[in-house]
């Protein structure tokens, strides 16, 4: 038996229950991982509320780090005793231990601890593909990144600085503005005090940015389009304020033939070779110290309802983890 969070219906934080579940041996192609730390991400809220549907009853969580305790038939990617981490499907990381497809597991470098790994995999791999594949950035580019003081945002601020990219970040408080600045954002806009679209135009001398990275969704979408220069790219990769409402493609044409994409980690990491390449890139900048993972909240797995409540209320900054 192992303890895990399960939901029988969608809804608020109260639908999450810590229960005993049977954990059999890993099947063919699987490895059993005993978690040392588990990542907490806004996508977990989407599954809990039903914005992203899943069969019920079900689990939650898409990111964890721990030790391989057993392997099934045909597994070649990892072996018993390996320190590993993962991000992505199948859902169910909110557990003391679980069986995972071995093809999803990555062996951790010795320089990276379990807490750091659990806090960085989903968020760090997200920044990696956003900056290197969705819109391949180069030194001298100027971008807008919403929620710059969140877990993804702080990694983005640091990684942009490493790449020589000018990052304009948005935040919701002066405390978060200071945090984003400390982590490498060139300009920070408090959207509760300033119109971010107008400030972006001021900062860029009316030119606009080449790309907007937006995990907020409904509240920032149209304003973000107005921040783009002609032929710029809108990258909508989250819905923290709700889904983007339907809009006319003419909105893109009238603003200068804009591009738009709605990427997901699962698509970009579907091939093992792409996952390994992205992880190598992420592990490199973290192990070197160029990108530091700032864990600002740690919760016991049993306190996951509190964790979700604070995450949804935007009371968290940096990265958060659950400890089994």
From TrEMBL:
Q: What's the short name of a Pfam family annotated to this entry? A: ADH_N
Signal peptide (from-to): none
Q: Which InterPro entries match?
A: ADH-like_C, ADH-like_N, ER, GroES-like_sf, NAD(P)-bd_dom_sf, QOR-like, Quin_OxRdtase/zeta-crystal_CS
Q: Which CDD domains match?
A: QOR2
A single GO molecular-function term is:
mRNA 3'-UTR AU-rich region binding
Q: Cite a GO CC annotation.
A: cytosol
Q: What is its EC number?
A: 1.6.5.5
Q: Which UniProt keywords apply?
A: NADP, Oxidoreductase
Keyword Oxidoreductase assigned: yes
**Domain of life, source organism:** Bacteria
Q: Where is the Enoyl reductase (ER) domain?
A: 11-322
The record ties this protein, via PROSITE patterns, to:
QOR_ZETA_CRYSTAL (PS01162)
**EC top class, as a word:** oxidoreductase
List the PANTHER family. QUINONE OXIDOREDUCTASE PIG3-RELATED, QUINONE OXIDOREDUCTASE-RELATED
- What name is this protein filed under? NADPH:quinone reductase
Source organism per entry reads: Rugamonas aquatica
